[in-house]
Amino acid sequence: MPTLLCFGDSNTHGTPPIVTRGVYARFGGDVRWPRVAAGLLPGWEVVEEGLPGRTAQFPDPVMGAHMDGRDGLKIALQSHGPIDALTIMLGTNDVKTRYGATPEKVAAGIAGLLDIAMSEEMQTRHGGFRVLVICPPPVLEQGPIASEFTGAHEVSLRLPELYDRLAQARGAAFLDAGRVIEVSPVDGIHFEPEAHVALGRAVAEAVRAL
Hints:
By secondary structure, the chain is α/β, with parallel strands linked by helices. The chain has helices at about 10-15, 35-40, 70-80, 105-115, 120-125, 150-155, 160-170, 195-210, and strands at about 5-10, 45-50, 85-90, 130-135, 175.
């Protein structure tokens, strides 16, 4: 049975749009996009590895050093397998104001994750697997967590082009989620249920094409 590993942040985890800060919630499996994709990939096993707050490269001074996705990806790739495909959708948290990251710096974080995934060690461990880089849709600076994303909208608008170029250079596939879905106007970051469904369908199609 082929296996797909979905690596990401709260939008891979299935966090609903935030109405009240500090309240934990998670959409059910019938809503979350990795499970939607699983339903459209008969015969595939789908592993969900979404951590709210995860970045591609930054230890979070508030949420903890474990938010740095580089160690998380190594752990995930060594915990599961063998896998046949990997999706990486990160960057939303990297544009938080506290990191001061340029679009190029955010893309560099994705490059680091690709270096890990495509390393001889990891590819050999799993017998070879393909990677799908997913650029998250642009954030909106509104809602209860808007103060954490001051200036982030303009940075996020630059990411699709940079991710696309990076994926091409590294031999990975690319999906611009912003062409498929939008973030919720409730908090400007997370996805509504219908967006999860649409993204799950798009990811399933992209995985079949790998």
